[in-house]
Amino acid sequence: xxxxxxxxxxxxxxxxxxxxxxxxxxxxxxxxxxxxxxxxxxxxxxxxxxxxxxxxxxxxxxxxxxxxxxxxxxxxxxxxxxxxxxxxxxxxxxxxxxxxxxxxxxxxxxxxxxxxxxxxxxxxxxxxxxxxxxxxxxxxxxxxxxxxxxxxxxxxxxxxxxxxxxxxxxxxxxxxxxxxxxxxxxxxxxxxxxxxxxxxxxxxxxxxxxxxxxxxxxxxxxxxxxxxxxxxxxxxxxxxxxxxxxxxxxxxxxxxxxxxxxxxxxxxxxxxxxxxxxxxxxxxxxxxxxxxxxxxxxxxxxxxxxxxxxxxxxxxxxxx
Length: 320
Hints:
This is PH domain-containing protein. It contains ten helices and seven strands.
């Protein structure tokens, strides 16, 4: 009986994912029908988001079926469904056109044909009596509302896991932390890596300018560095893009200016350090021993970089 509640909550996650996918599909078809040039671009972005969520749903269903068969309570499969940096890359394109999309939707109130088409798609895709039907006012909050609903269910899963002292507690905490990171990122305006405030884009080699130009800033953080003498930098401010990583090194000296360093994520080696707070990054002309404030921060950053490397490798393999 105790196990049934955890499974019930995870089935709620599955139903929520299914509903989100259906709502995305209604928007896709409505944007396609409306015919505006921007609408077609937004439709393609929504299609990419829907397909990625369909893959996530398949992983969720497969993982839950396996847990049911083995009577396991770890739920490690949740980690493969929601990966922060991949979600940020996925949503970064949609963010660029969020305002235009909202404006288009509101403009449909003067187009009865589009409203009728949306209403018909709502019924055809989700059924007649479904509270999840979209309207012209749904689009701006579509993504965030879904993430908050996900987090709400996962918080209930966490409460149950803590109460029963299950092995799944740490897994669920990690997934919630990832969703929090994504929600905070979505609430900030989209920043592109080479155009960040107070950053000189000339630090990016000329041959990389074209590749780096449209690159979203996925996360930033501050780490301590090992200091051997007063010539060494004390802190590294790190800016992580989808393909590149930038370091701003700061010194405890009035006579030394900040120094910028640059690296390609796919060329980095990432490994744990000598303790739980340290990790090492090394590449061509680059080596950093970084000290995080907490174990979770260290683990999140290592995971983010390695996940981006996996994503780049799989993308390159598909292109070949």
